[in-house]
Amino acid sequence: MAKIFQATHVGKVRKNNEDALIVIEPETFVVADGMGGASAGEVASQMLVETVRDFLIRVPLPWDEKILAQTIALANENILNLARQNEQYKGMGTTATILSLDGYRAYFAHVGDSRIYLLRNKNFQQITEDHSYVEELVRRGDITAQEARFHPMKNVLTQAVGVIPRLYIDMANFSVEKGDAFLLCTDGLTNMVDDETIAEILMSAEDPAYELIEAALAAGGKDNISVIVAGVD
Ligand code: CA
């Protein structure tokens, strides 16, 4: 069984928390970072996590990457439909990052710039790729990863759930080892706190979710911050 910690915080600048997160038994984790005017971002991210939960609890285990991707596609339709019916929700969208553990197998599906990281043997690595304009530039070799970190167009996504009918959903599965720790988070953490500090907190904190939020707030807390940490025994 994984040891699970979760926390979300509005941050120090924003008025609303447009992030949503959910832990679905057994050992399935979702983070969503909503965007859109008024309270539309909250509506989109909330609809994402609810759609995923309602879908998965009717499906037999394991919830592999294809099933997880199906839930994102369904949430995409639901959010698009709601936005079509309500003028105030026009243009809303959300990231969607889902990780499901089944014994020593991990499955994930992902759209947007929320992230999954894996800490294994003190080696901290990002599992997901951001669907962002800046990340495209890094992949093409136009800018370095360091330049990307503070790029003015950092927030521009190349795709998000609920915005266009056809999504390219990243999905994969890989093996899990005893002692692995997974982190799911929104960019309110990663834009504020560097990888080294995050890894240190994961290795030492009693409640890593709480400590990660504290670190993001101490660094300025410019955005909503959401984290789920799952440590595999
Ligand atoms: Ca965000």
**How much beta, percentage-wise?**
25-35%
Question: Gap between N and C termini, in Å?
Answer: 6 Å
Q: Which stretches are poorly predicted, pLDDT < 50 over at least 5 residues?
A: none
Helix/strand-derived class?
A: alpha+beta
Instruction: Sum up the overall morphology in one term.
Output: globular
The total beta strand count reads 11
Helical amount: 25-40%
Radius of gyration: 17 Å
Ligand inventory reads:
calcium ion
- Count of helical stretches: 7
- Biggest β-sheet, characterized? 6 strands, antiparallel
Query: What is the N-to-C order of secondary-structure elements (H for helix, E for strand)?
Result: EEEHHEEEEEHHEEHHHE
User: On the 0-100 scale, what is the average pLDDT?
Assistant: 96
Give an overview in words:
The chain has 233 residues and is α+β, with helices and mostly antiparallel strands. Helices cover 32% and strands 29% of the residues. The strands form 2 sheets. Strands 2, 3, 4, 5, 6 and 9 form a 6-stranded antiparallel beta sheet that branches. Strands 1-11-10-7-8 form a 5-stranded antiparallel beta sheet. α1 packs across α2. Calcium ion binds next to α5.
Task: Map the helices and strands.
Elements: E1 2-9, E2 19-24, E3 28-35, H1 40-56, H2 65-85, E4 93-94, E5 96-102, E6 105-111, E7 115-120, E8 123-126, H3 133-139, H4 145-149, E9 170-175, E10 181-185, H5 187-190, H6 195-204, H7 208-218, E11 225-232
Antiparallel strand pairs: 1-11, 2-3, 3-4, 3-5, 5-6, 6-9, 7-8, 7-10, 10-11
